[in-house]
Amino acid sequence: MDMNQYLEVFIEESKEHLQNVNDQLMRFEKNTDDLGYVNEIFRSAHTLKGMSATMGFDDLAQLTHKMENVLDAVRNHQIDAHTEVLDALFESVDALEIMVQSISEGGDGQLDVKLLVQKLQRIVAEEPAAEHAASSIEYDEFVQTLLSQTAGQGFNAFEITVQLERTCLLKAARAYMVFDVLEQAGDVIKSAPTVQDIEQEKFESSFIVILVTSESQEKLKASIMEVSEVESVKIAAVPIKKETEMQELVSQEEEAAIQEVTVSAPSKSPVEEKRQLSNNKTIRVNIDRLDSLMNLFEELVIDRGRLEQISKELNNSELDETVERMSRISGDLQTIILNMRMVPVETVFNRFPRMVRQLSKDLGKQIELQIVGADTELDRTVIDEIGDPLVHLLRNAVDHGIEMPQARLKNGKNEKGTIRLKAYHSGNHVFIDLEDDGAGINREKVLQKALDRGIIDGKTAETLTDKQVYELIFASGFSTAEQISDVSGRGVGLDVVKNTIESLGGSVTIDSNEGYGSRFSIQLPLTLSIISALLVQMSEERYALPLSSIIETAIVQPKEVMHVHGQKVIDFRGAIIPLIDLKELFTVPNSVQRDHYSVVIVKKGEKTAGLIVDSFIGQQEIVLKSLGHYLPGVFAISGATILGDGQVALIIDCNALIK
Asked: pTM (2 decimals)?
């Protein structure tokens, strides 16, 4: 039996426990009188310690053990939760995250934590003395899960207590020999004390081991007794619960939870609570499997389009009925698959409170980060890309936005600044707003920097609106920082933000009020894989326009078209908007005479334009395929799709057309 099969579970659960420790520490720092946070932190740290020891990651286990000692002293009122204590705990979490990340990348998870361990020991005035003998071993949930998965595979689980002779001088060496015997017979799941403590002889004369093996008790005992200076061996069978029994145990725990909830919240009936808990049952699925499922479904969508095309051509009622039913079922399946891929933005947001805390300490500022709508969901492909842009925007808000405490007090503000991160759904989009109550954007300073760097000329500067000036900070190499620091000033960041968001089919806008703060608003599509699009015809070629970019379609007569500075424009609902002829843009052979213009009105933020096509084909669900490495950087084309009749249609990037 290979322990590596449990590695993925260990990594995922470790990350969840570390995130919980992070969250609870942040809350505890704001209210150190509430020891409920400490108890929650202790439970996660304790579970992480047990898991790490079981998997053989001794540095992880050692550090979490020392954290437990500090947390235990805090909750028992032996020490106060002052800044030094909290900083040491945060530093420990950072080290644990580095170790878990190392393991997830195929490393050994080792890290030199001696200085950190000493710091934690000093806090509780703890001498690094030898541990006492093990008298019991804990069967935490992680161990129970490992054992349950061996049921039905022909393995036995034994709790083995080994007593060395009291006169044994080389206890660690004898213990090593015992472990060597056990590892040849099966897999060591856990030991008490930990393997590291045993190697350092931090035990009296006995230790306990949980072993999964196919060997018998008699044979194991005989093999261990052959090791010199072993006084006695006791072996007890550990009852292995099958996975179905584990599920029943979980159900019993849910029932207990239901009773607790019913007592604390009598406004809901027990039946409602039970239904709510039963709906929260989850199962871990490797994301690669979801990607494979999505790829297969994309092929099904293409074939569905082909069937719909054939059905229209043959005009057979039975075929029409069957295809209609298949389309309806596949549409429901599409919704389910897309929902399976949806991930709450909390997975990105949850790392920001720690980051803002550290940055504000480094800069000597007082900042509160408020997060709203963390349960808002996005497709995981979008989630994977949105983290870095948000980091840049947050660092910008901390460094450039929020003023120093003295400056805020001087301007009649609270010395503590506030940054508000909000996510919410609107139609087929997700919006993420980042707002601060800081200094806002200095229009003249931005203009001057843009002029100095040659981003704009003096004539252009005179015509820019406030909003256009604010958008200059997205220019490559632009920075208003007076000096370069670890936080900002190198002129990279916000241009990357804009490019990344637009590459995802989204947009970012800025609002600012000098002296009162700024707001960055990001608009993102819910998903990138399957989109609703309007198919249009140009000569013999077909193109797709994402519906998320379209305001409406219109038929425009030639007499309604005006010319301004050589550009075709029309009056659209009281506003003059430019017309872009896609035939000219993409050099499509012009073989169709137009007696009117078919126009698609598209938007990018607050900007609008009209795209001239030959005709509208209709709306369709399409699968977005990348152009790959063969056609990189094709202007205004974001990908391609295969239509029902097998033809390829290019997908137009409307954002690239509107400047």
From this structure: 0.58
